[in-house]
Fold this sequence. Notes:
Layout: H1 7-11, E1 15-16, H2 18-22, E2 40-47, H3 54-73, E3 81-88, H4 102-111, E4 116-118, H5 123-136, E5 139-142, H6 149-152, E6 159-161, H7 166-180, E7 186-190, H8 194-209, E8 214-219, H9 227-236, E9 241-245, H10 248-260, E10 266-269, H11 276-282, E11 290-293, H12 304-312, H13 319-338, H14 343-352, E12 354-357, E13 360-362, E14 376-381, E15 384-387
Parallel strand pairs: 1-12, 2-3, 2-4, 4-5, 5-6, 7-8, 7-9, 9-10, 10-11
Antiparallel strand pairs: 11-14, 12-13, 14-15
Amino acid sequence: MDCAASPMSRDRRMRRTFRSLIVAVATAAALASAPPAAAQIRIGVAGPMTGAIGQLGGELVAGAEAAVSALNAAGGVLGQQVRIEVADDATAAAACSDDQRAPAVANQLAGAGVVFVVGHLCSAASIAAATVYAAEGIVQIAPGAPDPRFTDDRAGPGVFRLFGRADAQAGIAAAHIATQFAGVPVAVVDDQTEYGRSLGGAIRGALGGLGIPLAFNESYRSSSVDLVDLVRRIGVSDAGLVYFAGNAAEAARLRLELTSQGSTAVLFGGDALADPDFTAAAGEAADGAIFTYPPDPATGPTAADAVAAMRAAGLEPTRFSLHAYAAVEIWAAAVAEAGTTNLAPVAREIAAGTFETVLGPVTFNADGEADLVGWVVHEWRGTAYMPLPSP
Length: 391
């Protein structure tokens, strides 16, 4: 993804060393809840805390709490302890697109006096809440929300994304198809969820940009389609690779039907296929399915101390927990540099800085996009997935 720094960022580039400050104290003891202080700074963590994908919201909370505990043990921010307010945006599990509750959640956090929010996880919720945060002077760093509109139609200068864009995910997938499946007829199918439409449109555009024609192209609602007929028509197209843009449960249904009809087509998908629900539903048929997903930050050297401390406290680091951890690192370093929690100066520091985080060095471009290695192709092998070598 093109994440060239803004002019201000180039002129004022400096390396923030928040991690060096807290790593020394990021131990299991540091991860214990800090005692309340007379003066506190409140930050929010917003995402799906209940329902089928509630565990992902729990991962955000775990990562933010780990970073805040270590931060408080090192003296807090501006001499004050930091306190977390957790808010459930009740994101719909199937589509990851429930934007109905998000504005209310954002107003709830604003009413609680938070100055910064780690969230939301899903794109529609993040977009819906961003306008509230911008109006209320709250900095927002989303550890998910891959829809390009989140930053393309940015609600304000305090809105940032610490995750890969969906169109960048599609670009990685298209490049993999071009090099590893050259000449193989390709089918693209999406399930008409917001996630599916966004990713499906992106992969169609990316494949078209590489001159790769589609042997089969369809968009459908899972509640109304006859999968037997859909897969039969995919077979008639001779597609040797089926790219599916949609949720994990529907991907599993499609994979099972492909297998049932004797298809040997490779199933390729987006990050939704990383959901363990995919393999739980598809069983052995999931083996060999490939998908794009962020690299695992827990294996990187910059996360080693935080990972060790979290595990010592009984917390298993995940991608989302470490993205939440990094979001807190970035905000805290920017506040320390700005000398205030007010949105405008903190947003300027975030836009201008290079931040040492558990994810490695992070900078943001003029649109609020982080310069992360956003997507890597992975493959399911049994009940685990692993990254594939770069072509």
